[in-house]
Design brief:
Length: 409
């Protein structure tokens, strides 16, 4: 009996010891977890006190996934939310010492908030993180605008794309599921274009066009991105689609005309020029383009008519005067070649042919003189005038042009 009693008492003692050991282990574990998460609270307090360097140091210790001591806090959503707040505060700070703490604090904030939501399976911090994201959107917008103004287009693009990513997060979309920020999409396209990321620019221009943002201009800009990549087919298809949506917009028509002219598709170019003139007969450049096309086709009569129409619509249109003058001048040069082929013993015929050449030069002269009046010092114009005055024996004007040529050197 005595032995049984002693055994029972020993067993009770052993049980008590085990309970004590288990309780101690739990206490140690709880204390370690509390200590890890306590760093997060400390970091937040330091951030609120404006001690961002100390706050960053504390939160990075708590968020260090490679540190076994931070195992609990590194997987705690609150840790990453506070980390995002600290980096966002660094991004907002005007203190140069704090600015040096991170090269791209708003990106760090964005990534931290994103990780906080990924870890928050119970959606316990949705409301507070949502507020963080709304404030971050404002900061990213300001950063993007500043970067664009400073011609740091890659940074501007990254900021705009982060805003788009935030807008696409369920916690943000919940309030307005169908909302689309077309302004940010379009600005992303502009930033990408200026950063020479043309595929990205086209992607965002297409998205903007889908929602009708900026109308025909979006198609013109998209076409420019295609053309820089030497994708004429893409540019042409883009402009055709744009013209279907905005048939009254002449900028799209002009783009189509230019591509057709560059590809020597004269029929398509002429058809679209006629549409453009019908839509707006006050634009001198349409008549000028038509004149250049007629001249290219060898229809000099129609070329002269349309160049003349250009001048009628705009009496200061330099290129129309120059092309008319050059057309007549070249006709005179061609006629001189005819005269040179006349046999040496047919002097009268030779003189008659040369007289025909001079008639063309006489026609060319007033147009070249007008060019010199509009753009004094143009080398091509001065050279043409020198030859014309010499050929027409107007030596006073010839000498005056020689002086003008010397002064322009």
């Amino acid at each position: 009996m005595l032995q049984s009693y002693i055994f029972v008492e020993k067993f009770k003692t052993i049980l008590k010891m085990k309970r004590t050991i288990i309780l101690l282990a739990l206490l140690v574990a709880f204390s370690a977890t509390f200590a890890q998460k306590g760093k997060v609270t400390t970091a937040q307090t330091l951030k609120d006190a404006g001690k961002l360097d100390k706050a960053l140091e504390a939160i990075e210790e708590a968020a260090n996934v490679s540190d076994p001591k931070a195992e609990k806090s590194a997987n705690w959503p609150k840790t990453w939310q506070v980390r995002g707040e600290i980096y966002q505060a660094i991004g907002q700070s005007k203190d140069e010492n704090f600015k040096k703490l991170s090269k791209d604090p708003l990106t760090e904030a964005f990534n931290s908030y994103k990780k906080a939501m990924d870890l928050d399976e119970k959606h316990a911090i949705d409301k507070s993180v949502k507020m963080n994201l709304v404030l971050l959107t404002n900061d990213l917008t300001n950063q993007a605008v500043q970067a664009f103004q400073e011609e740091n287009y890659e940074k501007a693009l990254a900021s705009f794309e982060q805003i788009l990513a935030i807008n696409d997060m369920p916690v943000i979309k919940a309030d307005n599921p169908g909302a689309v920020d077309t302004v940010i999409i379009f600005n992303s396209a502009l930033a990408a274009y200026n950063a020479e990321k043309y595929d990205v620019a086209i992607k965002y221009y297409k998205e903007s066009a889908k929602y009708g943002y900026n109308g025909a201009r979006t198609y013109s800009l998209m076409s420019a991105a295609y053309q820089i990549q030497k994708d004429t087919v893409g540019a042409l298809n883009c402009l055709k689609e744009g013209f279907e949506k905005y048939p009254e917009d002449n900028s799209i028509l002009e783009g189509l005309i230019q591509i057709y002219m560059d590809q020597n598709k004269t029929d398509e170019a002429m058809q679209n020029l006629e549409k453009a003139i019908a839509q707006d007969p006050t634009k001198p450049r349409y008549y000028f383009a038509q004149g250049a096309l007629y001249e290219k086709l060898g229809n000099e009569k129609k070329a002269i008519e349309t160049y003349s129409k250009t001048i009628e619509v705009d009496p200061t249109f330099f290129n129309a005067y120059y092309n008319l003058g050059a057309l007549y001048y070249n006709k005179g040069v061609q006629q001189m070649e005819v005269a040179k082929d006349v046999p040496a013993n047919e002097n009268a015929r030779y003189e008659a042919e040369m007289k025909k050449a001079d008639e063309w030069f006489v026609k060319a002269l007033p147009f070249m003189e007008k060019c010199n009046e509009l753009q004094s010092g143009d080398k091509m114009v001065l050279e043409s005038l020198k030859n014309l005055y010499y050929r027409l024996k107007q030596m006073d004007k010839y000498n005056a042009v020689l002086e003008q040529i010397e002064k322009s050197k």
